[in-house]
Amino acid sequence: MALLLAGDIGGTKTILRLVERTADGAMNALYEFRYPSGEFPDLVPMVQQFLTEAATKLEFTPELEKACFAIAGPVVNNSAKLTNLPWVLEAKRLEQELGISRVSLINDFVAVGYGVWGLEANDLHTLQVGKPSQHDPIAVIGAGTGLGHCFAIPEANGIRVFSSEGGHGDFAPRSELEFDLLKYLLAKHDIQRISIERVVSGQGIVSIYQFLRDRKFAAESPEVGEAIDKWESEIGKSEKTVDPGAIIAGAALQKCDRLSEQTMQMFVEAYGAVAGNMAVSLLPYGGFYIAGGIAAKILPLILEGSFMRAFTHKGRMDSLLEMMPVRLVLNDNVGLIGAAVCAAGL
Fold it and tell me: Is 78 left (phi over 0), alpha (psi -120 to 50) or beta?
């Protein structure tokens, strides 16, 4: 039995999980706790407090063999400077101060890439069965605050995950309506290009809504309009009191607001097309995974069909994309699971 520590570190909260890896490779969560990140000067005292609390709960003192922490931000040479916290983390320092033989720091979306390897069948919803091949790459895309990409290659003892910044590629409109959206965003932000994640992300949902509203596609409902106005008034503030993307998606799911429904239809189609572009670039017959904070919450909209139609609509490449297994991740702890998978492989 080996004890591993997995962590998901964000500017607002950090989740730590103590994991037992058994002789047959199974990983069982023994103890987990969530901490407000800003209440600690560094990760070390947080982990020390966590281990003290775990010892009391489990009635034995955990002796950690390995640890992996997923960081919401760039990781270079196993070190990271967090964007929204005054923390500078270095794996070697953490090893010394925490007495752990191996510590790894990885980007939070890379952790999602490892995490899909550790999911159970009920953590996934199959969008396309395809013809899976265990020797081929897997790819992961995830819209949330931004748009994450990563891909993985199978190895003898698991997988190796590679990061990507594909979400910062250029948005490619596919219809007259999307061309109008592109022109609207260029003018609104007074910039020279529009990245994919300006459209396929939480902020993208709001951008599409504002475009359709200003284009007079349909009348704005008072409830959604009030939420958008409040969000716009809070731009630049560190704390937001409203999530307009979630409100728009909720109205579309309830089919109670035509403007929100059209917004989400455009969003889902753009999401599917972008996912298909990634798939045709990597040919991930090992599996294509839809993760991120949005997809599982709008599953009924994804299942209406336009996502997969846009995914496979690649001209002469349609038949290749129809062979790919496509699965949507339902487990929102996939990054924490991935940190444990990565720790086990150190």
Answer: left
